[in-house]
Design brief:
Length: about 350
């Protein structure tokens, strides 16, 4: 018998802006009527998407009030993803120093660099002290555990790796980690409901570690290349911690509609990978290395900011670039330039 996930929808009691929250969900047969529990309505997954769209449309009808209640009241926080400065060529201690000196609020580390630091005799406690002394937060971390794959043995190994990754992130004071579809970028399409079950298992693992895995869109991948797929998996996970890690480049690469970001409540986007892309190469040929500074390309960044504003976004904008021309330049200047361009868009 097919089962359908239920959602609870709550509306803000004041006429400022409708707010959408995902409460813990129940399961019921798709043919059953909507039920009431504790005064809340439990619609089907289809109703979830419809309600989210209505709420997003309602938010757009009151832009002035939205501005007063979201981004203008809570200043944007800016984070440096260390791929921007070709972090693998720099010790993580230098990466932290560059992010702090450039003026970022946080840093998004790659765990491979932490592993290199530990292999050379470094201690996590020393790295955490440097972060604290630099007044930087580990806003997110990049790792590639194969938690979503169909193969049971490989998935078990992937979850074990994810647990170790989360333990390192927690030891550094971090509370989030990227959860891309690593290991499933090629081959057959995954069953999205089963992917939701696997994401739920990852989220439960994260609760034990105090680290939230954010489901990441990967535009080049055979799986989770579009925002629609990621939303489905988040819904199927039936977990209150489910959330999305969008990326401007990946949304374009995978053919997602940027307007669909309006289906997400702001708190469901803890971190947003910000970048831009040029007019050429075309979508089919464009690659990570073609990313450019925000504002230097053709991405609808103002539209994205407006949508985030209406959604009540209070998360982190993380600059993630892989531009080899930038890698040839002084990493501190690259970091400073990227932050300046981010702030110009957010002003």
């Amino acid at each position: 018998m097919a089962l359908e996930l239920s959602y609870n929808v709550a509306f803000h009691p004041f006429p400022v802006r409708p707010v959408f929250f995902c409460y813990p969900m129940s399961i019921h047969h798709p043919k059953s009527e909507q039920s009431f529990r504790g005064g809340r309505i439990s619609p089907t997954r289809r109703d979830f998407y419809s309600a989210a769209a209505v709420l997003a449309a309602g938010a757009a009808t009151a832009p002035a009030l939205s501005r007063e209640s979201s981004l203008d009241q809570q200043p944007l926080r800016y984070c440096l993803n260390t791929s921007t400065i070709q972090g693998e060529k720099l010790p993580i201690e230098q990466q932290i120093g560059i992010a702090a000196k450039a003026g970022y609020d946080g840093i998004e580390i790659w765990l491979r660099d932490v592993e290199r630091f530990l292999a050379s005799g470094g201690k996590l406690s020393d790295l955490r002290k440097q972060l604290e002394d630099s007044r930087l937060k580990v806003e997110s971390a990049i790792a590639f555990a194969s938690w979503i794959v169909d193969d049971d043995a490989a998935r078990t190994t992937g979850l074990e790796q994810a647990a170790r990754d989360m333990e390192v992130v927690a030891a550094l004071g971090g509370k989030r980690i990227a959860a891309p579809p690593a290991g499933a970028t090629q081959g057959p399409k995954l069953d999205l409901d089963r992917a939701g079950e696997r994401y739920r298992a990852l989220l439960e693992l994260g609760r034990k570690q105090g680290v939230v895995p954010m489901l990441e869109v990967w535009g080049f991948s055979a799986n989770l290349s579009r925002l629609a797929e990621v939303l489905h998996v988040c819904a199927a996970a039936d977990h209150p911690d489910a959330c999305v890690l969008p990326d401007v480049y990946h949304l374009f690469k995978g053919g997602s509609n940027f307007a669909d970001l309006g289906l997400l409540a702001g708190p469901k986007i803890p971190v947003f990978h910000f970048n831009d892309y040029p007019a050429t190469p075309e979508r089919a040929q464009i690659q990570d290395a073609d990313r450019v500074y925000p504002g230097d390309g053709i991405a609808p960044l103002r539209q994205i900011f407006s949508t985030l504003q209406s959604n009540g976004f209070t998360g982190i904008l993380s600059l993630e670039l892989f531009n080899r021309t930038y890698w040839e330049q002084d990493p501190l200047e690259v970091a400073r330039t990227g932050l300046l361009k981010l702030k110009m868009l957010g002003s």
